């Protein structure tokens, strides 16, 4: 529900656009027009009864400002490349390219909310994609490759989780170690080669024939993972415990939460997301390569932070992270359509990240006063 | 072929063509060499076992099809000589680590060093150090900053790669009015990428009817190739030719082209991967040619290192010493000549 709606408001840009121009002052006034607010109220309304009312309101405002940034980007796109940017094909492309990193980001967001960090996601994606395309896995067809990718992801997540939850290792170090060894293993298994996929059902999943109602299957998986992630975080005991552990682990332990088990599960979920993302990447590129997932860890963490997730844990939303991913992907798309060179792209990307965070802070402050 | 380029480059080209030919013949006949030593008074590299030579080989991490092929070419070439012992270091993209590895090889007192630096400028000092220690260095592909740091340089011609890709595309499109060309470049912070683009642009200047309408840089990976190509296809609703700098990222680029259902243009690849040559041969995709950047240079580097170690010249050349530099030729592989080059295709 939430996911389906998030890309939606990006399309009719005119109304939310002004809200970015002056985000601080008319903040409350703009509450009316954007249709994207429709899905947001649930957390806000639900926030009423509990102590989380204030943080939830913050999160909503943050998402609103991100929607504003996204809308501004859409306006720029519509002005600079009117024929291409708003075309259905391009919209599909943006969503498709957001899906791989998007799925990873959902997992990473949960880990960060739970007070941890996962630096190994890119490497796990690489390992899972290489493993699923080599070692005779392709002989087992689509199902075999999918299963392999998911199992490798879960396996890496299990190692991460066990080291951190039961081995007492700092998440930063444990997942950094996983980053190094998973990349090494991926390089070893692939022997430095690009593993080209020959399994037709896998390849076809990435072609337009496989679209469901005009939506690429990759995007559907991304949407499904987002919805599940949102439900897990907002509608389950597991989600509440995650927030509690991330906010104050000691208090959570005293309240009777099995903190270690909770942490293990979070890294498992992150690994699972990486496995799914790896399979999506195989479908997208028709191959597995040890360089896959390069710098995903940074992109995913950045998207989560921009989306309002607190790096120290205890607060964050799946919707915000997904919006963060969409902002990044839209920027990339915008740059490519306007044929910007990569140096300019990098500078502009940095500037936009700073702008997005600044806008958020101002929105949050004006919301609190 | 050479008129538009400065004469020094022309000289290099000539040297490259001649010596590449010389090496190719050398390649094919190294198992049973019956040519005899009478061919030149200087006594070129023959394959008769000579003085035992230990060659140290240090390269970057083989995380890419082409680099992987470089390592394999070096290793398998060394195995064909019974008088050669190869000491290979673990590949690394970390400058400090690679310097340490080369210093270890110097301390082991290998007879000759073959170095493919991850970064030529950054490794110049260690090349100098080896030369001062009396170990001749064969600098492979990415060139050191100082000519004192190596005895011989052998490598590919990035500028020529762009030039030949541009010429091929130019010839294909010369009768087409307002032809549009798109470039999918490699990693933009590498000098070689800029050289490839420069060569390409220079070649296109000879064809006023052709305009380069877009250029995006990918990262030599399948993933980046797919992503950037998908965007380029969105940005350009139709064009006539595409030059993709690298066949590895080409796997992703071709996938994006298939996903977009486009086929109105011809595509030229770069490097010479086997899958690209197979596609050119089958002639059922947009890929019609690839510009070589042959990893066989690593095998040739071993030949040169052996010759250096044994104090020989090069067969087929009148000189008594091996040359100071050798630039390979970036041949254009098309359907017509693909069979000739298929054996050098790497996967």
UniProtKB/TrEMBL annotation, chain B:
Residues 55-312 form the Periplasmic binding protein domain. It comes from the Bacteria. Residues 29-49 are annotated as: Disordered. GO terms for molecular function: carbohydrate binding. InterPro entries: Peripla_BP_I, SBP_2_dom. Keywords: Signal. Pfam families: Peripla_BP_4. GO terms for cellular component: cell envelope. Its main location: other. It is found in: Cell envelope. PANTHER family: D-ALLOSE-BINDING PERIPLASMIC PROTEIN-RELATED. Belongs to the bacterial solute-binding protein 2 family. This is Sugar ABC transporter substrate-binding protein. It comes from Streptomyces xinghaiensis.
